[in-house]
Amino acid sequence: MLSSLFKTKRFFLLLLLLLVIFVVRQIFLSSPSHELTYTVTRGELVDTVEASGMFMTALQKEIFSPTKGVITQLYVVNNQEVKKGEPLFHVESTATEKEKITALATYQTAVSTLTTAQQTKESLDATMWTEHKALLDAQNAKNFQEDNTTNPDTDDTYTDLEKRSLDSALVQARKDFATAEKKYKEADSAIVAAQASLASAKRVYDETKDVTIAAPVGGTIVNLLKKVGDEVSIPETSSESQSQKKPVLPVLMIANLANPVIIATVNESYIPRITTGQRVSVIFDALKEERFTGSVAEVDTIGTDTDGVVTYQVRIEFPDIPPTIRPKMTAIVSIETLYKSNVLTVPNSALLTQDGKTYIKKNGKVNELIAVTTGKRGTTKTEVTSGLEEGDVILANVQ
Questions:
Q1: What sign results for the dihedral spanned by CA atoms 63, 67, 68, 69?
Q2: Contacts of 396 (CB under 8 A, 6+ apart)
Q3: Which H or E element spans position 72?
């Protein structure tokens, strides 16, 4: 009885072991299907190009004070319209009398130095042409001597001493002209240096004078935060000074707030797909919950190369911008490069091209390709104009 029970137990254990081996074998030997299906639907075919942009106005002119001092008069206020030449503000210099006298003397010296350099160049120019004439005379004399020596019909003869004298005179004339030409060219360097010194001296001298600043262009006054009695400074000109000091802000700006635009920067890979008139969706970083609509107005013809990366600027115009959107705000723009509604679409990976024809493979049809006619092709999907019906199930990865 025990022997029979033992045999029955062994049988079930063996059966269980075989069952486990079969299941494990099925798991390891079975290969999963890589076929993906797609149900053909009718809807929109949309393709976009995204880029970063900045909101700009037609004019943004910064107005700085040319004098370090104090504002004593303000002739404008924010949002006021001004015309070119109208006064904006008056600044009285805080320079001391000694600083004013020193600046004026340095400026006058710089003017005199430039005048001297220019006169020296004129003198060197005259000397150079005198030496040039002497060189031509010496060359002509040498040529005349050589012609007479080789012509048997002439009676003129030159002694060896005369020939050596002519050769020596020609060599010396060439040296004198080369020296005069070199000095003339070097005079330009002296003039450039004098002009730079004069520009620097004039700037320092202007900084010591009281001045009324007028509008260089017409537009709307914005960014005027200064008041009468506030101190103003002059923007630094050298990069070293700017890096070491806090940058000087303009006293105000003159802007043209009409016709706002976004200037977007687009990589060269996408620019062939962008043309004027395309619809644009805009989301500003400062107002992510709102979306604005505009259109492409202009596209660069020549790109900009920055460290080997070529980009093109795209001008995007849009109306009805609220005052909460301000110039120089950044935005993400989506340029609609393709749009079709109520069309049948399939994934691009479902299309197979052979012998100039396009095919798809329906689900369950082994090795059966069905010819289709395609329309517009987007980045991920393509329009199918014939060969399929809405609701057809196809293989999405036939390739």
A1: negative
A2: 36, 37, 38, 346, 347, 349, 350
A3: strand 69-74
Q: In angstroms, what CA-CA distances link 336 with 208, 295, 354, 392?
A: 56, 9, 31, 28
DSSP SS3 for 389: coil
The β-bridge partners of 310 are 305
Query: Are the C-beta atoms of residues 245 and 303 closer than 8 Å to each other?
Result: no
pTM above 0.85, yes or no: no
Sheet holding 69-74, edge to edge: 211-214, 87-93, 69-74, 231-232
Is the CB of residue 58 less than 8 Å from the CB of residue 258? yes
Taking CA atoms, 48 is separated from 37, 92, 330, 364, 384, in Å, by 25, 56, 19, 34, 20
Partnered with residue 47 across adjacent β-strands are: 338
Alpha carbons 125 and 120: distance in angstroms, whole number = 8
Task: Specify whether the CB–CB gap between 69 and 92 falls below 8 A.
Answer: yes
- For 174, which DSSP code? H
Question: Two tokens at 311?
Answer: 């980009």
Q: What is the pLDDT along the chain (399 residues), one digit of tens a residue?
A: 545 545 566 666 666 766 766 655 555 444 444 568 888 888 889 889 999 999 988 788 999 999 999 999 999 999 999 999 999 999 999 999 999 999 999 999 999 999 999 999 999 999 989 989 888 888 888 887 777 666 555 555 667 777 788 888 888 888 988 998 898 888 888 899 999 999 989 988 888 999 999 999 999 999 999 999 999 988 876 444 444 567 888 999 998 877 788 999 999 999 999 999 999 999 999 888 888 899 999 999 999 999 999 999 999 998 777 778 888 899 999 999 998 899 998 888 888 888 888 888 887 656 678 888 898 888 888 999 988 888 888 888 875
